[in-house]
Amino acid sequence: MNNLQAELVETIRSYIRTSPLNRLRDLDGSPFWDEPLVGFAVGDDPLFDHYKSVVAPEHQTPREVLSAFSSGVAYGPIAVVSWVLPIAEKTRQSNAQMSDGPSVRWNHTRFQGEECNDSLRRHVVHFLEKKGLVAIAPAISPTFRTLRGPHGLASTWSERHVAHAAGLGTFGLSDGLITAKGMAHRCGSVVVGVEWPASPRPYTDHHAYCLYYSQSACGECIDRCPAGAIGPDGHDKDRCQQHLTVTLAPWRERPGYSSPYLACGLCQAGVPCESCIPAGIDSNLNIL
Q: Which residues span the domain enclosing 202?
């Protein structure tokens, strides 16, 4: 990691420590997010091409992201900075106690907390532009969209898959990304036209940190899912989405639940991978 990367890591962490947007402003004013994890990937990493088959054919590579805004400019080296925002313990505990739908704290974290994440995306872009670099946050760019992929609902830029490429975690049975701080989190990233070294990726198996896949054990997220959307074969995105947008729709009338839809997250709380890589797995982590 070079000096500019180190400065960027501190910029991201400082923003989360100090931003007034990182507060449950309608509840007790406590933070949405704990200290972020940060990783880097090389923009031409073959994994990004692979995501066209495992996420959706329309999933963009970092080079495609910059090309969409280049006006014919051909970029040289490209890098990606990715971060994980771990959900605060009090919020995780509140959701672990739920059985049918999310706690109020969890729901506010999903929507108001994501406003903080979007602001961080813009902050990182501004930081890099001040350094004379071209930078794009794909998830808030005009080219971003959700779509129907081969495995259900998908998007043109999956923050979880980008974080996986940046060495920050592997996928669990529920499709969540298990990181050094667990799978209760949100992710973000920015593509930048620069040559930077990648963070170590201490895994070769994309399910390495999941007890169910790696040791044929656990499966607690199956029991935690009120929609029956998680099973031995993985995560049924359509059944999950039905639960969020239809079954839980009446919850929007409850005090504190005002949001476009409910954000369940029960599979991410009250499970062994909620806040860490489960005991018994040798993570061999080298994460910033």
A: 3-268
